[in-house]
Design brief:
Layout lengths: L4 E5 L5 H5 L4 E13 L8 E16 L15 E8 L31 E8 L4 E9 L8 H16 L3 E7 L3 H9 L3 E6 L9 E7 L8
Parallel strand pairs: 6-7
Antiparallel strand pairs: 1-4, 2-3, 4-5, 5-6, 7-9, 8-9
Length: about 210
């Protein structure tokens, strides 16, 4: 059963709740890189192959709080997801009636944040980057991450980006699967891209520019 969600731009008030989400995940495969260079004067061949790990590993990701802000003028996107709550209909009450309540009931509590996504747009290069996606453990495998990532795709097209990119650690099988479900394809790698010196596998999706108004 899919949970109905609402998606809204994140604010500074939402940062702590996003950081408190469980950022660990299980991975059972790795993108293994092979490098062939028999002779330095010859062409270097690089290959990647998805291989099953002997056993699943737990990956831990530490998000960068400075990325969690929404600023369209600076090409930053920060969106949070919350469970959808049906609006409460309050019957109008005549204030002069003897049955009128002295005080109105408090508004219902705001549902908790169950996921977020951050992205950025490089206007100079026309490239948007999917930086981070996180979903609460209870709602994983319910297409919440895909909905958040697809929102980035639509946002990137609106900004005028020609390409959407994502850099994924080689052992992060769930993120690789998310990129592939979004239609992104392997397009390269960057050695020692992350702080732990892990290789980044790059996935990309070509976007069409929106039609300009005449």
């Amino acid at each position: 059963m899919t949970t109905r969600l609402t998606f809204r731009p994140g604010t500074s008030v939402d940062v702590d709740a996003c950081l408190a989400l469980d950022h660990t995940c299980e991975s059972d495969s790795v993108w293994q890189m092979t490098l062939s260079a028999p002779d330095p004067s010859q062409q270097v061949q690089v290959g990647f192959r998805a291989e099953k790990l002997p056993r699943s590993v737990t990956l831990t990701h530490t998000p960068n709080p400075r990325r969690l802000h929404d600023d369209p003028d600076l090409g930053r996107l920060f969106v949070v997801a919350r469970p959808y709550v049906e609006p409460v209909t309050v019957e109008p009450v005549d204030p002069e009636s003897q049955d009128a309540p002295l005080t109105l009931p408090p508004p219902p509590p705001r549902p908790p944040i169950v996921g977020y996504v951050v992205a950025n747009y490089d206007e100079y290069r026309g490239i948007a980057w999917l930086d981070d996606v996180c979903v609460a453990q209870a709602l994983r495998r319910q297409r919440v991450g895909l909905q958040l990532a697809d929102g980035v795709r639509m946002w990137a097209k609106e900004q005028g980006a020609t390409r959407l990119l994502c850099a994924v650690p080689t052992k992060h099988a769930p993120m690789v699967a998310l990129c592939q479900r979004l239609g992104m394809a392997f397009c390269g790698y960057n050695d020692q891209f992350f702080l732990n010196h892990d290789i980044a596998v790059l996935f990309g999706l070509r976007l069409s520019r929106p039609q300009r108004a005449e």
